[in-house]
């Protein structure tokens, strides 16, 4: 029987962050898809085998979990060049969108076809059979509504096939994906695990372990505020909100287009303009470096005020809280605005991660730690059960 490969996948609203195996492969793909046809035209050097497959993901996805089965998609960077590209809409449920599954399957298939992993899975002609043990998560609101069970049941017990069409290096390959196990974690709980434990699930942050803390995880479409006390997430007090940064990013993108005539491919491009080290909040307009500070400051400050109100309301109901950690891609975008508001208003004890990658990859890292822990415990109990009983 094929050994199952560990996969920890954060289907973020901005991009997919995934970790495989023994931390031996990471993938980060913009969460954008576009419906397409089988015979997409190939342009110039795209035909070269040296082209990065991540820039040309063109797939057909067959899965009983999908509402629209057997459709063809451009995914990630390639999708940004399409007029009909779609990103997840505010108000949508991650667990119920085809796009979430398409991105998940595409990411796993890219790992399976990676030449470095050729010995991991059996291959017959052009078909690879890949088994995964998956750790992933959903916003707290969806878990509280019980949608995690439905999401998990879509994945386990079925075969999901990804066929690479006009994709550099992988054209013509098919991957059959099966899940030995799927664990769906609430995002706030996952953030807590990542804060206090290392990759071996050893406690690394003893100062935090017994403190009362909040974790405000700002995503693209939602915000989760986890309430931690007595080393546990208080499920009753933890809250999920339909407020993320996607709508603000879309508004910035639209205002840049109408004011400066510059078309940005995706929300990812907007995030890059807001967060990069050099020339932050600047774009090129007809070859001239141009500030868009007026647009970004107004829109992001308005969103930061709403996020701050959420913090204030949850803290009021948990008055003995000692510190709030802001995590997630949205926290990276809003960091300076929330800090300024806090300095001018309540002065809560809040903290952001200065390492932006650490904040953005926090969920994927947490799912990795949790699924590795599950696998190790499963192997231990299987070994104990198989050992002969000593008389």
Summarize the structure in words.
- Helix content is 36%, strand content 25%.
- The chain has a domain at 5-186: ATPase, nucleotide binding domain (Nucleotidyltransferase, domain 5, 2-Layer Sandwich).
- It has helices spanning 98-113, 140-144, 147-155, 187-196, 206-209, 246-260, 267-275, 293-317, 329-344, 356-360, 362-386; strands at residues 5-11, 15-20, 25-30, 33-35, 57-62, 71-75, 123-124, 127-138, 160-164, 174-186, 213-218, 223-229, 232-233, 239-241, 282-285, 288-291, 323-327, 350-352.
- Strands 1, 2, 3, 4, 5, 6, 7, 8, 9 and 10 form a ten-stranded mixed sheet that branches. Strands 11, 12, 13, 14, 17 and 18 form a six-stranded mixed sheet that branches.
- With 391 residues, it is an alpha+beta fold.
- α4 (187-196) crosses α11 (362-386), α6 packs antiparallel against α8 (293-317) and α8 packs across α9 (329-344).
- The chain starts with a strand and ends in a 5-residue tail after the last helix.
- β7 and β8 form a beta hairpin.
- The radius of gyration is 22 Å and the shape is globular.
């Amino acid at each position: 029987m094929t050994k199952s490969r560990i996969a920890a996948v954060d289907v973020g609203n901005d991009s997919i962050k995934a970790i495989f195996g023994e931390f031996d492969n990471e993938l980060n793909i913009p969460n954008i898809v576009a419906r397409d046809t089988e015979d997409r035209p190939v342009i110039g050097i795209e035909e070269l085998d040296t082209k990065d497959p991540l820039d040309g993901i063109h797939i057909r996805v067959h899965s009983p979990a999908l509402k629209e089965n057997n459709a063809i998609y451009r995914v990630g960077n390639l999708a940004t060049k399409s007029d009909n590209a779609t990103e997840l809409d505010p108000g949508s449920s991650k667990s119920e969108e085809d796009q979430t599954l398409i991105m998940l399957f595409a990411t796993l298939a890219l790992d399976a076809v990676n030449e470095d992993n050729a010995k991991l899975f059996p291959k017959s002609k052009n078909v690879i059979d890949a088994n995964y043990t998956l750790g992933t998560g959903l916003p707290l609101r969806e878990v509280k509504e019980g949608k995690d069970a439905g999401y998990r049941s879509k994945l386990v017990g079925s075969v999901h096939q990804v066929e690479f069409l006009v994709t550099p290096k992988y054209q013509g390959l098919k991957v059959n994906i099966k899940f030995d196990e799927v664990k769906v974690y609430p995002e706030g709980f996952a953030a807590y695990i990542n804060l206090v434990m290392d990759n071996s699930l050893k406690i690394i942050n003893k100062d935090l372990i017994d403190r009362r803390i909040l974790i405000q995880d700002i995503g693209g479409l939602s915000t989760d505020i986890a309430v931690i006390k007595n080393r546990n997430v208080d499920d009753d007090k933890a809250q999920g909100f339909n407020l993320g940064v996607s709508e603000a990013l879309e508004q910035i993108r639209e205002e840049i287009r109408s004011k400066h005539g510059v078309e940005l491919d995706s929300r990812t491009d907007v995030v890059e303009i807001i967060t990069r080290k050099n020339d932050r909040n600047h774009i090129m307009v007809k070859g001239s470096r141009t500030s868009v500070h007026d647009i970004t400051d107004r829109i992001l400050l308005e969103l930061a005020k709403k996020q701050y109100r959420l913090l204030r309301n949850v803290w009021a109901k948990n008055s003995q809280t000692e510190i709030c950690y802001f995590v997630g891609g949205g926290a990276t975008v809003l960091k300076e605005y929330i800090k300024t508001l806090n300095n001018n208003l309540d002065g809560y004890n809040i903290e952001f991660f200065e390492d932006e990658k650490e904040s953005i990859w926090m969920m994927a890292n947490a799912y990795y730690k949790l699924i590795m822990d599950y696998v190790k415990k499963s192997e231990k109990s299987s070994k104990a059960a198989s050992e002969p009983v000593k008389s």
